[in-house]
Amino acid sequence: MFAVIKTGGKQYRVAANDEFTIERVAGEAGDTVSFAEVLMVGTSIGAPFVSGASVVAEIVDQVRGPKVISFKKRRRQNSKRTRGHRQDLTLIRISEILTEGQKPSKKEQKAAAAETPAVTESATDEAPKAEKPKRATKKADAETNETATEAAAKKPRATKKKAEGADEA
Questions:
Q1: 52-90 per-position pLDDT tens digit
Q2: Predicted model pTM
Q3: pLDDT attached to residue 54
Q4: 1 pLDDT tier (thresholds 50, 70, 90)
Q5: Closest residue by Cα to residue 15 from 4, 30, 31, 29
Q6: What is the mean pLDDT of residues 111-123?
Q7: 105 vs 1: CA distance, rounded Å
Q8: What is the Cα–Cα distance from 5 to 102, expressed in whole angstroms?
Q9: Which H or E element spans position 148?
């Protein structure tokens, strides 16, 4: 049986155990991904999607496409621009094509359960971070009703006379 799925703005004809690249999908190698936007399964055509159908795939690897070079030149203007681009892609392997609201097989469910870590209390009870000392702000100065010049006037300054007097003593 085959299906037509839509992902990354493109449509793909897929069958079980097919391997191909699609636009980047979040996940690590070994993760399971389910595509719910199924346009066609066998002879059933959706309007726009087949209800209850999904395609389960396994991420094989996260890869990048070939380098594409964009070169622009304006003649007689001494102007040119070169840009390169590599598209992020995901290599996937189709595991199952599910119809009529079926669930993934036991093997796929175990793989999905193993990938999602169980949340424990120790992971959620993190030690609070040490707070950084707060810097003086304009609000703090406004609360004390001091301007920068008044605050500077209160601070004792080392003058030349005091420094010379300290050398003599």
A1: 899 999 999 999 999 999 999 999 999 999 999 999 999
A2: 0.57
A3: 92
A4: confident
A5: 4
A6: 47
A7: 17
A8: 17
A9: helix 148-154
Largest Cα–Cα separation, the chain? 104
Check whether the bond before 48 is cis (ω within 30° of 0): yes
CA quadruple 88, 91, 97, 98: dihedral positive or negative?
Answer: negative
- Look up residue 73 and give its two tokens: 């030149």
Question: Residues 6 or more apart from 17 whose CB is under 8 A from it?
Answer: 93, 94
Instruction: Give CA–CA dist 73/85, Å, rounded.
Output: 18
- How far apart CA 72 and CA 70 sit, in angstroms, is 7
| Contacts with 5 (C-beta within 8 Å, 6 or more apart), sequence order | 11, 12, 14, 35, 37, 38, 39, 55
Measured on CA atoms in the order 86, 89, 91, 97, is the torsion positive or negative?
negative
Q: How is residue 105 written in tokens? A: 């097989």
